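Researcher: Quick test of sequence recovery. Tokens follow.
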């Protein structure tokens, strides 16, 4: 892992060294690497400075002949598929988005080193699954 400091934040370059990958469709473990690619991911800030992770990760061939996925990407528990933010940054942004209106929340996130737009915060709110709460009052 290497680190670079810039005026706009901290940048870390991380390389995955996994020897196998597990297919997300069939859970079959594959040893046959397809290729590598770079993902750019945002993480929680350090001392108010944004953190950007450059993650060099792998694609794998699914060797299970019955699986519909021929090629799949490596998965990480701290990173959801197709996302450009870590799970913990997403959680922090959700807390801020639900605490106030999204215009003010966007200003707060910029000051904290997690710059996102109010539209992004609105998307987070709309994609959050809300628990169903049953009213203690009986309606007839």
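Model:
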């Amino acid at each position: 892992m290497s680190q670079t400091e810039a005026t706009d934040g901290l940048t870390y370059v991380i390389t995955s060294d996994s020897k196998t990958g597990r297919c997300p469709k069939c859970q079959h473990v594959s040893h046959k690497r397809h290729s590598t690619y770079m993902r750019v991911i945002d993480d929680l800030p350090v001392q108010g400075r944004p953190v950007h992770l450059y993650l060099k990760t792998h694609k794998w061939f699914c060797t299970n002949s019955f699986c519909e996925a021929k090629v799949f990407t490596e998965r990480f528990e701290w990173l959801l598929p197709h996302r450009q933010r870590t799970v913990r940054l997403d959680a922090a942004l959700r807390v801020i988005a639900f605490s106030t209106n999204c215009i003010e929340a966007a200003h707060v996130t910029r000051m904290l080193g997690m710059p996102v737009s109010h539209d992004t915060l609105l998307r987070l709110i709309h994609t959050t699954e809300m628990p169903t709460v049953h009213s203690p009052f009986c309606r007839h």
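The mean pLDDT is 90.
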